[in-house]
Amino acid sequence: MPKKRSEHYVNNKELLDAMVEYRIKSRLAKENGDTPPPISNYLGDCFLKIATHLSYKPNFVNYMFREDMIGDGIENCVQYIHNFNPEKSTNPFAYFTQIIYYAFLRRIQKEKKQLEIKTKIIERTGYDQVMVIEDGANGSTSDYNTIKDNIQYRTSR
Questions:
Q1: Nearest in space to 86 (alpha carbons), one of 18, 35, 25
Q2: Domain assignment of residue 5, yes or no
Q3: pLDDT single digits (tens) 54-63
Q4: pLDDT by residue (tens digit) across 44-89?
Q5: 143, 72: one domain
Q6: DSSP state letters, 117-144
């Protein structure tokens, strides 16, 4: 009975063959003065599988912006695909996994900075909660314009 493969499985040998084929097409296009060819659907699918599977690892799984991390990883793979040299390494899976891993770390750092900025803005306005929902018979909520006016009044003093 053959071994069942995960939906995120990427065959390293097939990925290497696709990379060699892409490099040949890319080199020919460069020699002819043409634009580099688009990456194949197979390569794009491999990048997506690697990034998706890496996002399920324990150090990345609980982030709310996982889709952004995956997108950044794929974008970096496409950006640096021309740097992979099959003459130096026969392991494109490891190469692209590292690219995606560091893209994930950069996204986490960006999101942390944004969270710090949001926290500082809320602290400077003097509000612990921007919107307050009261559990009453009518279920009234704070008026957005009132909060905005109060913030403008406090910052203009």
A1: 18
A2: no
A3: 999 999 988 8
A4: 999 999 999 999 999 998 889 999 999 999 999 999 999 999 999 9
A5: no
A6: HHHHHHHHHT-S-SS-B--SSS--B--H
Residues shown for the chain = 157
What are the residues facing 138 on neighbouring strands? Answer: none
Q: What is the mean pLDDT of the chain?
A: 84
Of 106, 104, 124, nearest in space to 116 by CA: 124
* Spatial CB neighbours of 20, under 8 Å, sequence gap ≥ 6: 86
pTM, full prediction: 0.74
Q: Which domain holds residue 56?
A: 12-117
Quick check: 34 and 25 in contact, CB under 8 A?
Answer: no
At 139, is the pLDDT very low, low, confident or very high (cuts 50, 70, 90)? very low
Number of domains in the chain: 2
What the block records as the tokens of 128 is: 């612990």
Question: Among candidates 86, 87, 100, 84, which has minimal Cα distance to 48?
Answer: 100
133 beta partners: 141
CA distance 53 to 116: 29
Predicted local confidence at residue 14, as pLDDT: 94
